[in-house]
Amino acid sequence: ATIRNEMADLEDMGYLEQPHTSAGRIPSDKGYRFYVDALLEPHSISMPELGEIRKKIIGAQLNLDRSIHEAARILALLTGSISLVVTPSTDHLVFQHLQLVSLEDTGILVTLVLHPGIVKNKLIQTEQKYTSEQINEISLTLNHKLKGITYRELGPTIFAEIIRDYGEIGRVLVELVLQGLSEENGEQVYASGAVNILSQPEFRDVERAKALLEALEEKDRILNLLSSSSGVSGVQVMIGQENIHTAMQDCSLVTCTYYVDDNVVGTLGVIGPTRMDYGKVMAAVSLVSSSLSTLLSEQK
Protein backbone atom coordinates (compact mmCIF):
# COMPACT_ATOMS: atom_id res chain seq x y z
CA ALA A 1 0.00 0.00 0.00
CA THR A 2 2.86 2.34 0.84
CA ILE A 3 4.45 1.83 -2.59
CA ARG A 4 1.08 2.40 -4.30
CA ASN A 5 0.59 5.59 -2.30
CA GLU A 6 4.07 6.85 -3.13
CA MET A 7 3.56 6.09 -6.82
CA ALA A 8 0.23 7.91 -6.70
CA ASP A 9 1.98 10.90 -5.13
CA LEU A 10 4.68 10.82 -7.82
CA GLU A 11 1.98 10.70 -10.48
CA ASP A 12 0.21 13.68 -8.91
CA MET A 13 3.50 15.61 -8.96
CA GLY A 14 4.02 14.74 -12.63
CA TYR A 15 6.99 12.39 -12.24
CA LEU A 16 5.04 9.30 -13.35
CA GLU A 17 2.37 8.85 -15.98
CA GLN A 18 0.02 6.17 -17.23
CA PRO A 19 0.08 6.05 -21.06
CA HIS A 20 -3.36 4.37 -21.16
CA THR A 21 -5.78 2.83 -18.68
CA SER A 22 -4.52 -0.75 -19.03
CA ALA A 23 -0.85 0.23 -18.76
CA GLY A 24 1.35 0.49 -15.72
CA ARG A 25 2.94 3.74 -14.63
CA ILE A 26 6.17 4.84 -16.26
CA PRO A 27 8.43 7.86 -15.74
CA SER A 28 7.26 11.04 -17.43
CA ASP A 29 9.58 13.50 -19.16
CA LYS A 30 9.66 15.40 -15.86
CA GLY A 31 10.62 12.20 -14.04
CA TYR A 32 13.46 11.45 -16.45
CA ARG A 33 14.65 15.05 -16.17
CA PHE A 34 14.81 14.79 -12.37
CA TYR A 35 16.70 11.50 -12.69
CA VAL A 36 19.27 12.94 -15.11
CA ASP A 37 19.78 16.16 -13.14
CA ALA A 38 19.70 14.86 -9.57
CA LEU A 39 20.10 11.09 -9.32
CA LEU A 40 22.25 9.88 -12.21
CA GLU A 41 25.65 8.52 -11.25
CA PRO A 42 28.57 8.77 -13.72
CA HIS A 43 29.00 5.77 -16.00
CA SER A 44 32.57 4.62 -16.58
CA ILE A 45 33.92 2.97 -19.71
CA SER A 46 36.66 0.38 -19.19
CA MET A 47 40.21 1.32 -20.18
CA PRO A 48 40.51 -1.46 -22.83
CA GLU A 49 37.21 -0.32 -24.37
CA LEU A 50 38.35 3.30 -24.20
CA GLY A 51 41.63 2.50 -25.91
CA GLU A 52 39.94 0.49 -28.66
CA ILE A 53 37.47 3.28 -29.42
CA ARG A 54 40.17 5.92 -29.68
CA LYS A 55 42.30 3.60 -31.81
CA LYS A 56 39.46 3.12 -34.31
CA ILE A 57 38.70 6.82 -34.63
CA ILE A 58 42.35 7.84 -34.85
CA GLY A 59 42.95 4.99 -37.31
CA ALA A 60 40.86 6.93 -39.82
CA GLN A 61 43.12 9.98 -39.53
CA LEU A 62 44.04 12.36 -42.33
CA ASN A 63 40.61 11.92 -43.87
CA LEU A 64 37.81 13.97 -42.33
CA ASP A 65 34.99 11.96 -43.90
CA ARG A 66 36.40 8.65 -42.70
CA SER A 67 36.98 10.01 -39.20
CA ILE A 68 33.42 11.28 -38.87
CA HIS A 69 31.90 8.15 -40.42
CA GLU A 70 33.84 6.06 -37.92
CA ALA A 71 32.83 8.30 -35.01
CA ALA A 72 29.15 7.96 -35.99
CA ARG A 73 29.44 4.19 -36.42
CA ILE A 74 31.13 3.69 -33.05
CA LEU A 75 28.63 5.92 -31.27
CA ALA A 76 25.68 3.97 -32.70
CA LEU A 77 27.36 0.69 -31.76
CA LEU A 78 28.08 1.80 -28.18
CA THR A 79 24.57 3.07 -27.52
CA GLY A 80 22.32 0.86 -29.65
CA SER A 81 20.63 4.03 -30.88
CA ILE A 82 20.84 6.48 -33.76
CA SER A 83 23.99 8.60 -33.84
CA LEU A 84 24.40 11.95 -35.59
CA VAL A 85 27.60 13.86 -36.31
CA VAL A 86 27.65 17.35 -37.85
CA THR A 87 30.77 18.13 -39.86
CA PRO A 88 32.74 21.38 -39.52
CA SER A 89 31.45 24.15 -41.78
CA THR A 90 33.66 26.03 -44.23
CA ASP A 91 34.04 28.78 -41.63
CA HIS A 92 36.32 26.43 -39.71
CA LEU A 93 38.57 25.35 -42.60
CA VAL A 94 42.17 26.44 -42.11
CA PHE A 95 45.01 26.67 -44.63
CA GLN A 96 47.47 24.10 -43.33
CA HIS A 97 50.08 23.31 -45.95
CA LEU A 98 51.06 23.80 -49.58
CA GLN A 99 53.53 21.59 -51.40
CA LEU A 100 54.89 22.28 -54.88
CA VAL A 101 56.85 19.58 -56.68
CA SER A 102 58.71 20.38 -59.90
CA LEU A 103 58.32 17.69 -62.55
CA GLU A 104 59.86 17.35 -65.99
CA ASP A 105 59.87 20.40 -68.26
CA THR A 106 57.14 22.82 -67.10
CA GLY A 107 55.06 20.46 -64.97
CA ILE A 108 54.32 21.25 -61.31
CA LEU A 109 52.31 19.12 -58.89
CA VAL A 110 50.37 21.34 -56.47
CA THR A 111 49.14 19.75 -53.22
CA LEU A 112 46.94 21.82 -50.91
CA VAL A 113 45.93 20.71 -47.41
CA LEU A 114 43.04 22.43 -45.63
CA HIS A 115 42.45 21.52 -42.00
CA PRO A 116 40.66 19.41 -40.97
CA GLY A 117 41.32 16.62 -43.43
CA ILE A 118 40.82 18.11 -46.92
CA VAL A 119 43.54 17.45 -49.50
CA LYS A 120 43.51 18.77 -53.08
CA ASN A 121 46.00 17.86 -55.82
CA LYS A 122 46.44 19.32 -59.29
CA LEU A 123 49.07 18.85 -61.98
CA ILE A 124 49.68 22.03 -63.95
CA GLN A 125 51.77 23.00 -66.95
CA THR A 126 53.25 26.47 -66.72
CA GLU A 127 54.25 28.67 -69.64
CA GLN A 128 57.61 29.46 -68.08
CA LYS A 129 60.04 26.95 -66.64
CA TYR A 130 60.77 27.24 -62.92
CA THR A 131 63.90 25.90 -61.27
CA SER A 132 63.61 23.70 -58.18
CA GLU A 133 65.01 26.57 -56.11
CA GLN A 134 62.30 28.93 -57.38
CA ILE A 135 59.59 26.35 -56.66
CA ASN A 136 60.87 25.82 -53.14
CA GLU A 137 61.05 29.57 -52.51
CA ILE A 138 57.48 30.09 -53.71
CA SER A 139 56.28 27.19 -51.58
CA LEU A 140 58.03 28.49 -48.44
CA THR A 141 56.75 32.04 -48.96
CA LEU A 142 53.14 30.97 -49.53
CA ASN A 143 53.17 28.63 -46.55
CA HIS A 144 54.49 31.43 -44.36
CA LYS A 145 51.90 33.86 -45.71
CA LEU A 146 48.84 31.61 -45.48
CA LYS A 147 49.44 29.02 -42.74
CA GLY A 148 46.75 29.22 -40.08
CA ILE A 149 44.47 31.54 -42.05
CA THR A 150 40.81 30.52 -41.84
CA TYR A 151 38.17 30.67 -44.54
CA ARG A 152 36.67 33.69 -42.81
CA GLU A 153 39.96 35.54 -43.23
CA LEU A 154 40.43 34.66 -46.89
CA GLY A 155 38.96 37.08 -49.37
CA PRO A 156 39.37 38.86 -52.71
CA THR A 157 42.28 40.96 -51.44
CA ILE A 158 44.43 37.98 -50.42
CA PHE A 159 43.47 36.04 -53.56
CA ALA A 160 44.38 39.01 -55.77
CA GLU A 161 47.76 39.35 -54.02
CA ILE A 162 48.55 35.66 -54.57
CA ILE A 163 47.65 35.80 -58.27
CA ARG A 164 49.59 39.06 -58.73
CA ASP A 165 52.72 37.84 -56.96
CA TYR A 166 52.83 34.21 -58.17
CA GLY A 167 51.21 34.24 -61.60
CA GLU A 168 50.14 30.85 -62.92
CA ILE A 169 50.99 29.05 -59.69
CA GLY A 170 49.05 31.62 -57.66
CA ARG A 171 46.01 31.31 -59.89
CA VAL A 172 45.96 27.51 -59.58
CA LEU A 173 46.32 27.76 -55.81
CA VAL A 174 43.34 30.12 -55.58
CA GLU A 175 41.31 27.77 -57.79
CA LEU A 176 42.15 24.82 -55.52
CA VAL A 177 41.19 26.74 -52.39
CA LEU A 178 37.87 27.80 -53.91
CA GLN A 179 37.25 24.27 -55.18
CA GLY A 180 37.92 22.84 -51.73
CA LEU A 181 35.61 25.35 -50.09
CA SER A 182 32.79 24.88 -52.60
CA GLU A 183 32.90 21.09 -52.34
CA GLU A 184 32.81 21.27 -48.55
CA ASN A 185 30.28 24.12 -48.50
CA GLY A 186 27.93 23.99 -45.55
CA GLU A 187 27.61 21.59 -42.67
CA GLN A 188 26.79 17.97 -43.39
CA VAL A 189 25.12 15.43 -41.12
CA TYR A 190 26.36 11.86 -40.86
CA ALA A 191 23.94 9.36 -39.30
CA SER A 192 24.42 5.76 -38.27
CA GLY A 193 22.32 3.10 -36.58
CA ALA A 194 18.89 4.09 -37.91
CA VAL A 195 17.92 0.40 -37.94
CA ASN A 196 18.45 0.31 -34.16
CA ILE A 197 15.32 2.33 -33.56
CA LEU A 198 13.16 -0.35 -35.18
CA SER A 199 14.03 -2.81 -32.41
CA GLN A 200 12.70 -0.46 -29.73
CA PRO A 201 9.18 -1.23 -28.41
CA GLU A 202 8.21 2.45 -28.67
CA PHE A 203 8.63 2.30 -32.42
CA ARG A 204 6.78 -0.89 -33.25
CA ASP A 205 4.08 1.48 -34.46
CA VAL A 206 5.06 1.78 -38.12
CA GLU A 207 3.74 5.32 -38.50
CA ARG A 208 5.67 6.55 -35.46
CA ALA A 209 8.90 4.96 -36.69
CA LYS A 210 8.33 6.32 -40.19
CA ALA A 211 7.78 9.86 -38.86
CA LEU A 212 11.05 9.75 -36.91
CA LEU A 213 13.09 8.33 -39.79
CA GLU A 214 11.63 10.90 -42.19
CA ALA A 215 12.53 13.68 -39.74
CA LEU A 216 16.10 12.42 -39.65
CA GLU A 217 16.26 12.78 -43.43
CA GLU A 218 15.64 16.53 -43.17
CA LYS A 219 19.11 18.04 -42.92
CA ASP A 220 17.99 21.53 -41.92
CA ARG A 221 15.80 20.15 -39.15
CA ILE A 222 18.65 18.09 -37.71
CA LEU A 223 21.12 20.97 -37.95
CA ASN A 224 18.62 23.21 -36.18
CA LEU A 225 18.09 20.60 -33.49
CA LEU A 226 21.79 20.03 -32.86
CA SER A 227 22.77 23.69 -33.14
CA SER A 228 20.76 24.47 -30.00
CA SER A 229 23.57 22.88 -27.98
CA SER A 230 26.52 24.11 -30.05
CA GLY A 231 27.18 27.09 -27.80
CA VAL A 232 27.16 25.06 -24.57
CA SER A 233 30.07 23.05 -23.26
CA GLY A 234 29.74 19.52 -21.97
CA VAL A 235 27.08 16.88 -22.57
CA GLN A 236 23.53 18.19 -23.02
CA VAL A 237 20.30 16.18 -22.71
CA MET A 238 16.89 17.02 -24.20
CA ILE A 239 14.08 14.75 -23.06
CA GLY A 240 10.80 14.06 -24.84
CA GLN A 241 8.70 17.21 -25.13
CA GLU A 242 11.80 19.36 -24.64
CA ASN A 243 12.60 18.55 -28.28
CA ILE A 244 11.10 21.17 -30.56
CA HIS A 245 10.21 18.73 -33.36
CA THR A 246 7.01 16.73 -32.93
CA ALA A 247 8.39 13.53 -34.50
CA MET A 248 11.16 13.46 -31.90
CA GLN A 249 9.05 14.06 -28.80
CA ASP A 250 8.97 10.36 -27.96
CA CYS A 251 12.78 10.45 -27.88
CA SER A 252 15.65 11.89 -25.93
CA LEU A 253 18.62 13.59 -27.56
CA VAL A 254 22.07 13.56 -25.97
CA THR A 255 24.63 15.88 -27.57
CA CYS A 256 28.15 17.21 -27.13
CA THR A 257 30.30 19.58 -29.17
CA TYR A 258 33.74 18.66 -30.48
CA TYR A 259 36.71 20.93 -30.91
CA VAL A 260 39.86 21.83 -32.77
CA ASP A 261 42.10 23.19 -30.05
CA ASP A 262 39.69 25.39 -28.06
CA ASN A 263 37.33 26.18 -30.93
CA VAL A 264 33.98 24.42 -31.35
CA VAL A 265 33.76 23.05 -34.90
CA GLY A 266 30.86 20.57 -34.77
CA THR A 267 28.31 18.67 -32.73
CA LEU A 268 27.56 14.98 -32.31
CA GLY A 269 24.71 13.24 -30.56
CA VAL A 270 22.48 10.24 -30.00
CA ILE A 271 18.71 9.90 -30.45
CA GLY A 272 16.92 7.12 -28.61
CA PRO A 273 13.80 6.35 -26.57
CA THR A 274 13.24 8.39 -23.40
CA ARG A 275 13.89 5.26 -21.32
CA MET A 276 17.47 5.04 -22.65
CA ASP A 277 20.37 4.25 -20.34
CA TYR A 278 21.32 7.90 -19.82
CA GLY A 279 24.54 7.21 -17.94
CA LYS A 280 25.88 4.92 -20.64
CA VAL A 281 24.79 7.15 -23.53
CA MET A 282 26.18 10.33 -21.95
CA ALA A 283 29.52 8.61 -21.29
CA ALA A 284 29.70 7.33 -24.88
CA VAL A 285 28.87 10.74 -26.36
CA SER A 286 31.49 12.42 -24.17
CA LEU A 287 34.12 9.82 -25.08
CA VAL A 288 33.58 9.99 -28.85
CA SER A 289 33.53 13.80 -28.71
CA SER A 290 36.83 13.81 -26.81
CA SER A 291 38.44 11.29 -29.18
CA LEU A 292 37.36 13.19 -32.30
CA SER A 293 38.55 16.49 -30.81
CA THR A 294 41.94 14.97 -30.00
CA LEU A 295 42.32 13.59 -33.52
CA LEU A 296 41.42 16.85 -35.27
CA SER A 297 43.58 18.97 -32.96
CA GLU A 298 46.61 16.71 -33.45
CA GLN A 299 46.20 16.85 -37.23
CA LYS A 300 46.55 20.60 -37.09
What is this structure, in a nutshell?
The chain has 300 residues and is of the alpha+beta class.
Topology:
Blueprint: H1 2-12, E1 16-17, E2 26-27, H2 29-39, H3 47-58, H4 64-79, E3 82-86, E4 94-102, E5 107-115, E6 118-125, H5 132-146, H6 156-183, E7 189-192, H7 206-216, H8 219-227, E8 236-239, E9 251-260, E10 263-273, H9 278-299
Antiparallel strand pairs: 1-2, 3-7, 3-10, 4-5, 5-6, 8-9, 9-10
Structure characterization notes:
There is one protein chain. Strands 7-3-10-9-8 form a five-stranded antiparallel sheet, sandwiched between helices. A three-stranded antiparallel sheet has the order 4-5-6. The chain has nine helices and ten strands. The chain has helices at 2-12, 29-39, 47-58, 64-79, 132-146, 156-183, 206-216, 219-227, 278-299; strands at residues 16-17, 26-27, 82-86, 94-102, 107-115, 118-125, 189-192, 236-239, 251-260, 263-273. Helix 4 (64-79) packs antiparallel against helix 9 (278-299). The protein is 45% helix and 21% strand. The protein is of the alpha+beta class. The protein folds into three domains: 1-39, Arc Repressor Mutant, subunit A, CATH 1.10.10.10; 43-89 and 186-298, GAF domain (Beta-Lactamase, 2-Layer Sandwich), CATH 3.30.450; 91-183, Enolase-like, domain 1 (2-Layer Sandwich). The model has no long low-confidence stretch (mean pLDDT 83).
